[in-house]
Each structure stands twice: as structure tokens, then as C-alpha cells.
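Lecture 7 notes: from sequence to structure.
We start with the chain below.
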Amino acid sequence: MRPVLLVVAAAVCFGTTGTAQAYGPDAASTTAVGLTRIVAGGSLLAAVAWLAARRSPVRAAVPRLSPGVVLLGGAAVLAYQPTFFAGVRSNGVAVGTVMALGAAPALTGLLEWLVTRRLPSRPWFVATGCAVIGVGLLGGLLDEADASISLPGIAGSLGAALSYAIYALAAKRLLDEGASATTAIGSIFGVAAVLGAPFLLLVDLSWLGSVSGLAMVAWLAAATVALAYVLFAIGLRSLKASTVSTLTLVEPMTACLLGIVLLDERLSAPGWVGLGILLCGVVLLAVPSRRAAVVAV
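Predicted C-alpha cells for the same chain:
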């Protein structure tokens, strides 16, 4: 049960991203925020991993990381940003977000099966189905049903989902090879930070001179990247990548609740139903994990 709770805690941290951006400066574009989040957060994670490795008494036992896996994971982390925003820009926030978040667990399960030849469990299929339906209702997909759907936008959202799936499997591979949570995540996000840094020259960063801008970046880097992804990796060590991908759908639920409490947003009746269905899906997925833990003990 502990790995499940850690992943859920990570998803809660992820879910604060939108609220943090809402409290940030109006001049900060979503692209600029996404890039600074990855570069600052990735640099922080890389520093934490370096310090942890230096202080480790068993430094000689630290496994050699696969450079190709680290590079692939870092590229996937960076690719998530533009593909996600492309989907949202073309099809709107509701449809773009739902497509990206809803497709991520399915693509992760498919890639995991292709790589490991292990099919996700039956509870995963049921829980993921519930979670995806819940995300769809929560995101207002029914309200947008009559809107014209852009094929390039769909491609963008699916690209974001695929990027997430590749990152999750890359991190899982490093963890299975014996890397610690900080080493695996720090190396991947360190590469993402290096790859993303040049793109900062292409966006307006003048808002970083404000107190609200610095506070927003500090929160995004420390809470939604460094802390969140370390918790994510610790949970991922004991769980399948497909299971973790479904559990992180707690993120939109968190974002929605924070919007209601802090930003005075309103949720429609289908949205409340979706919130309940999403929660049921997460609980269904957590119950088998708890039983497995009891059996293991």
C-alpha cells in the first residue's frame, strides 16, 4: 500500500501546477512556464542525485546507468511539454488535457507489454477504464462534444501521452537495474534540463524579475518536479509502470479541487460524477496492491 500512497502523493504535487501558474505573473506564457519548470526542476533533481551519490557509503556499488535509457527518458520529459500544449492549443483545454491524460495509461500499458511481454492485470483494465471515464467527465469532455476536433491537436495530445509512457518505462528500467530513486530520476531530468536550456532563449522570461514569478518557479521546481518525481520513482520501484500511470490520474482531480477551493471555480454535475468515478478507479487499483503487499509480508 505504501508505494501506491507515494505515487498518489506525487500526483497531488503534480496537480498543484495549474494553481501555482494561476497565482504567478500574467506575463508568463504556458510555454515559458513549462520550460522553466523542467530546466529548474531538472537541475535541482540532478543536484540532489549528485549529493546523494557523494554521501552514499556504498558508492562503489552504484550501478552503471544505461546512457541510451537516460537520454531517451530525458528527451521524453522534454517532448511532453510542446506536444501537450499543441494538443491543448488546437482542441481546447478540456479535450486536449483529457486526450493526453486519458491516453497515457493505455499507451504505458501497451508499451510495457511490448517491452516486458507482461500484460497488465484485470483490475488494472477495470480501474483504468473507470479513471479515464472519470477524467473525461471531469474535464468537461461532454460539454465539448460538439466542437470540431483537430487531427493535429489529437496527434499532439497522443504525442504527450506517448512521451509520458516512454519516460515512465525508462525510469522503471533504471530502477530495475538497481539505481536509486534519486539517481534514476535525477539523471533523466538532468538530461531534460540540459536539452531544454537552449530553448529558454526563445521565450520571454522578463517575468522572472518579479517576486511572484520567482515564487512560482521555486514551487514548480521543488514541489512539482523534485519532490513529486522522487516520490513517483520510489513508488515506481515496487509497481508496474502501467499501474503508476493510472494512479497519477489523481493529478486532474487535485487540480480540480484546488480550483474550486482556491480559485473560486465551479464544477458541473457531470464533473462531480467524474470525480467520483475517478476516485473509484484509483481505489480499485489500490486494493489489489494492498493485498499483494500483505501476501508478500
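Points to note: Confidence is low (pLDDT under 50) at residues 289-297. The chain has one domain: 2-296.
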